[in-house]
Design brief:
Strand content: 35-45%
Helix content: under 10%
Distance between the termini: 93 Å
Radius of gyration: 40 Å
Number of helices: 2
Oligomer: single chain
Shape: rod-shaped
Length: 458
């Protein structure tokens, strides 16, 4: 009889005829004790086949199956509960696997699990109910409070970027690393005991701990153009930034900025690293050409002073100086007008055309606009250098390479510069073309009035 019941169960149906005196009370009559014992044994065997091989669980040594009955007595509520068993990622007290049962008809009622009836795993004990067995075994008083199983260990030295965990409660921080191809801003730091949720939860590898850094990324905007300032194809610039996590003497590569698009902006992300428990500090390090910057993932503070002008306030100033249309005529045939505006100046460690400033230096990038109109049929022209000269805090600095018709000119100054005096002097050299035999004068230079401006940086 037991063999037949087990085979039927495997097909999804349990049917056990009843005999004996007392047993389980059902709406179809009493299922005798001997019948309930045989039925429960078969259900319990099936349940163990289902759960014994499951990973990441805590199965009580007293785990077994019970009839769910009313709060008092042995009146069936039509369910069997097996447990307690706590699976990884389940909430407290969700330690019972339930399956519906029905009563068979006849003079001596039996019990069955309906064909293809699904088990409901990790459920709370039904309200206002008791758990009953015909052998009078009872659950432990603390059965519903079974502890969760330990989370499996993550890969040693885990280093990854994922979506922010909604359950994480990080300590707020706000420091950042600014690079030409993007800015990374820390939002919060945490040392969670586990990561992930549900059945995917993980604990640190042996001897390690987790550090979670919440961050976002944004483009680094060129204040003179209001566009991302990094162009990987521009001459003189560096390649994209290399990001690593520094753990002691170990450098772990990590993808932080969106690849291939300096204009990309992301929502909050999580940098998760697993590090030795006794490591004194962990750094997020950015290497861009010769410039290395780091943020501490322990304190949330920047630990380097390179590219310092990226972090100064008041590095953009409006110059608002202009030279209106000014004539520059010579002789009978050469006529011209020239206008110039010095618009803005910015102090920066990096220039899209010239790359990083040398150590201890910074760039003053000057935005300008100019127009030149001249008699072009008989003459060829060129500008005479230097055009833009300057002093930084009263000391002369090298003139800016470039001509008056450039949109942006760049000067090299000490990195701690506060006041830059700019002087723009446009000198136009002209010469008659070979066929212009009657042109008068044959050649000459026109010097337009100088234009000065003061850039003040805090």
């Amino acid at each position: 009889m037991m063999m037949r019941a087990g085979l039927v169960l495997a097909a999804g149906l349990v049917l056990v005829a009843g005999c004996g005196a007392s047993g389980l009370q059902t709406g179809s009559g009493t299922v005798e004790k001997k019948t309930t014992e045989a039925f429960l044994t078969t259900v319990e065997s099936d349940w163990h086949q289902r759960v014994d091989t499951e990973p990441n669980k805590n199965l009580s040594p007293d785990g077994r199956c019970y009839f769910v009955t009313g709060a008092d007595g042995n009146q069936s509520l039509g369910t069997v509960a097996c447990g307690p068993l706590r699976r990884l990622g389940t909430a407290e007290r969700q330690v019972w696997d339930l399956v519906r049962i029905t009563t068979t008809g006849g003079d001596e009622p039996g019990l069955e699990v309906p064909e293809n009836e699904p088990w409901k795993q990790s459920q709370l004990r039904p309200d206002s109910s008791s758990l009953w067995r015909p052998d009078d075994k009872v659950t432990d008083d603390n059965a519903d409070s079974l502890a969760a199983p330990p989370a499996p260990a993550a890969t040693p030295s885990l280093t990854t970027v994922t979506a922010k965990s909604e359950t994480l409660e990080p300590k707020p921080v706000s420091d950042k690393l600014v690079l030409p191809d993007g800015t990374v801003t820390l939002k919060g730091l945490a040392t969670p005991e586990t990561i992930g949720s549900g059945a995917e939860v993980k604990a640190p590898a042996s001897g390690e701990k987790f550090i979670a850094a919440i961050f976002s990324t944004s483009p680094t905007i060129d204040p003179l153009t209001d566009r991302p300032g990094f162009d990987a194809n521009a001459a003189g610039t560096t390649t994209a930034t290399k990001w690593t996590v520094t753990v002691g003497g170990e450098q772990r590569p990590v993808d932080v900025l969106p690849r291939g698009d300096a204009s990309a902006m992301t929502g909050d992300q999580m940098l998760l690293v697993s590090v030795p428990k006794d490591v004194p500090d962990v750094l997020l390090t950015a290497t861009s050409g010769p410039v290395v910057q780091s943020l501490s993932l322990t304190t949330g503070k920047r630990t380097t002073d390179t590219a310092a002008t990226y972090y100064r306030s008041g590095t953009l100033t409006d110059l608002s100086k202009s030279l209106p249309n000014t004539p520059g005529n010579q002789g009978r045939d050469f006529t011209s007008t020239y206008s110039l505006a010095l618009q803005k100046a910015v102090l920066a460690p990096w220039d899209p055309a010239r790359g990083w400033a040398p150590q201890g230096k910074a760039w003053v990038r000057v935005q300008l606009a100019s127009t030149l109109k001249y008699e072009s049929i008989q003459y060829q022209i060129d500008w005479t250098a230097p055009f833009l000269t300057a002093t930084a805090d009263g000391r002369p600095v090298p003139a800016a390479p470039g001509k008056p018709d450039f949109n942006i000119l760049t000067l090299e100054v000490p990195a701690d510069t506060k006041v830059v005096q700019l002087t723009a002097t446009a000198r136009l050299k002209f010469a008659a073309k070979g066929y212009a035999l009657s042109a008068t004068p044959k050649s000459g230079t026109v010097t337009y009035p100088p234009l000065t401006a003061t850039a003040i940086f805090r």
